[in-house]
Amino acid sequence: MDYAPLIEKRRIRLEELEQEIADPTLFDDRNRAENIMREHRRTQALMHTWAELCEAKAQKEDASALVSSEDADLAEMAAEELAELEPHIAKLEEEVQYSLLPRDETEDRDAIIEIRAGTGGDEAALFAADLLGMYQRYAEGRGWKFEILDASPNAIGGFREVTARISGEEVFRYLKYESGVHRVQRVPATETQGRIHTSTATVAVLPEAEEVDVEIRQEDLRIETCRSGGAGGQHVNRTESAVQIFHLPTGIMVRCEEGRSQLKNKETGMRILRARLFEMKQREAQQSYSAQRRALIGSGGREEKIRTYNFPQNRLTDHRIGYTSYNLDTVVASGAIEDIIAHMQHAEMQERMDELK
User: Order of strands, edge to edge, in the sheet holding 305-310?
Assistant: First the structure.
């Protein structure tokens, strides 16, 4: 495929963006400024990748011409260079392809991640805590900010449910594949006879919604205050700082007690509510996706089993694309999910390219 015409359009767009950035009134509208700066960074990165790809292809032509050289040493060096250039070119081409595809409007957004213990009792709650730690370390590795919004811990260090906000560059683009049922197979710390148990936790990754994305009418809300529970010192159970927000039309209930002030918890609760309502709106829109793509990347629903973590075999399997690796301990302990996400992005890109044909 000849990308040159599409690249030329992006080059023109980059010039337009640079003119807008030079406008001294740009930051009068903060949202517009953020969108323009984000698009500028993205377009600039694409042009850099394109230049690198063109340079690599030129090097490949030169090396190809030297492979048949009568100078044996020169021919050998050219062959070695070709062997290094070919996978590099393939990777750059994939990056260019992905960047040129129509973007999902939510990919640049921050994300709210909700993790709930599923079947398995205390072991499921411990697994939920492991997943939380895995995502936190992954976020830290990418330079994102990770903030716990609300949590319901149990007595042995796990979580019945926990909600966090992750903010940074293109957070939802990378984490959107994580929604679904995560299954763990291992010998629990509470197991005395060495038997392997199977437990689950559900993960929902929601793009953070802005007020313009969903309309929330005050008359559709019932807001209640109550005392916080759990660990937290003298503050807990002495002030009614916990907030419960009921969205009457949908039946969604959000409870927040992590903050020390009622106002802070209400703001956090409204943020989570907007994200959940926006998710419902997005999932309705996703019904227009092809059945094949939905089967590949999943519906993002909490009910869909997407991944198995088998600790006795140190094996991680993503069931949507048949991906398997045998470094599960590193993945969970270090948050090293980059390879899984890269495979998911590749699979999605191939499907989207097929849909454009």
Answer: 145-153, 159-167, 111-117, 197-207, 180-186, 305-310, 315-318, 323-325
Q: Please give the pLDDT value at position 53.
A: 95
Residue 158 has pLDDT above 60, yes or no: yes
The predicted-structure confidence for 255-308, as pLDDT tens digits, reads as follows: 888 777 888 889 889 999 999 998 888 777 666 544 444 444 444 444 578 999
286: which DSSP letter? G
Beta bridge partners of 148: 164
Q: Are 62 and 79 in contact (CB under 8 A)?
A: no
- Paired tokens of 75: 């021919």
- Name the pLDDT band for 237 (thresholds 50, 70, 90): very low
Q: Cβ-count burial of 149 within 10 angstroms (0-12 exposed, 13-18 middle, 19+ buried)?
A: buried
CA distance 20 to 38: 13
The pTM score is 0.76
Provide the residue count of the chain.
Answer: 357
Query: What is the 3 state secondary structure string of 83-137?
Result: HHHHHHHHHHHHHHHHHHCCCCCCCCCCEEEEEEECCCCHHHHHHHHHHHHHHHH
pLDDT at 30: 84
Task: Identify the pLDDT of residue 4.
Answer: 86
Question: Is 140 within 8 Å of 147 (Cβ atoms)?
Answer: no
Q: With CA atoms as reference, report the closest residue to 179 among 140, 147, 206, 151.
A: 206
Residue spans of alpha helices (H) in the chain:
4-21, 30-67, 72-100, 122-141, 171-175, 262-285, 291-297, 328-334, 338-356
